[in-house]
Amino acid sequence: MNARLLNWFKFSSPATFYPLAGRLVPIFTLIAVALIGVGLYMSFFVAPTDYKQGEGYRIIFVHVPAAWMSMFIYLIMAFWAGLGLVFNTRLSGMMTRALAPTGAIFAFLALWTGAFWGKPMWGTWWVWDARLTSELILLFLYLGYLALQGAIDDTRRADRAGALLVLVGVINIPIIYYSVQWWNTLHQGATISMDNGSKMGVTMLWTMLIMALGFWAYTIAVALVRVRSIILEREADTTWVSELAEVRR
Amino acid sequence: MKARHKRLGFLAAGLVGLGVAATLVFNALDSNLSYFFSPTDVVQNKAPADHVYRLGGMVQQGSLERGQELTVKFLVTDTANTVKVAYTGILPDLFAEGQGVIAQGRMGPEGVFVADEVLAKHDENYMPPEVADALDKAHKGAPTGVANK
Predict the structure, then answer these.
(1) Where is the Cytochrome c assembly protein domain (chain A) (predicted)?
(2) How far is A142 from chain B (nearest CA, A)?
(3) Which CATH superfamily hosts domain B34-121?
(4) CA distance A167 to chain B (A)
(5) Does the distance separating the beta carbons of A167 and B129 come in below 8 Å?
(6) Where are the domains of chain B?
(7) Cα dihedral across residues A43, A45, A46, A47: positive or negative
(8) Do A57 and B126 touch (CB under 8 A)?
(9) B5: annotated binding-site residue?
């Protein structure tokens, strides 16, 4: 038990995580480029036309994976935030901070593409129904976290304050996910769910899953790049950073 | 008990407390968060009689009447009850009989819901046209003996 714990804690040290992240970045970048490339080709040329919505539905291949990611990144942030508060590890706060901008981008993308889809299909850009409103709140949570974390100079205190905000906001995630079941909303119910499987054509489903996996790989790659620069910034005064080949020059 | 166990305990208690609070709040708000009322709500007088609200349901098959110029009348159903809706204006592309719809407006004097905005509600199904055709045929009791789905 003790040995296993020790092993995990080894990677919570920025000095060991920094080179590991550096090795992982190119791998995930490659996966992301390949999957999103294939996914976009399938979205535009392979996936069949929808029986009711025609070609306009193709925006869901970006919209749905972006919305999934916006929720999932928040959960991962909450995980890191909780870990940081309990174990007081430095890396957790850095990971939370590194993931937040990507989460905010995906939340914005989900709202933006949703508006583009909504205008021709529903007849409106925006409605204040439970699904759309709770997703907008998610975007504000990301922005609020970034603002709060950035407003405090002492990084350890900034991380703790941010972690609390992230954990309080985690209540919003099940609300977004179940909003279409709990209340009458204009937004349709889940096409792909754990209880009912999928309600879309097979090719469409694969296209969407490939896009989602591509977004995953992108998120990991970009978060690792970001966490590496956060580590360098915060540990600038340490000897291990001054001994790095890329720093010494 | 180490300090980190204590912190974990605080964290867990905090999250549980938050969850309970949220559940209570949403129970109290209940249907106030719903975007629309169903025809059954309207028939049971749960919808506000004297101000604007939204009515949601399915456009009943064969109920669409086109009146003068852009005026249309149709029945909105949730299979249990129906409400008649009158609307003047441009309908969204997805508007059709058998399709989900949300109309915003108020109840008129003769029990006709007068809408000033009509939105199409899409369902969660996405499929190629061939599949939709096949399902349609199977649904109507296919002569080829395909099992009804």
Answers:
(1) 25-187
(2) 19
(3) Nucleic acid-binding proteins (2.40.50.140)
(4) 8
(5) no
(6) 3-32, 34-121
(7) positive
(8) yes
(9) no
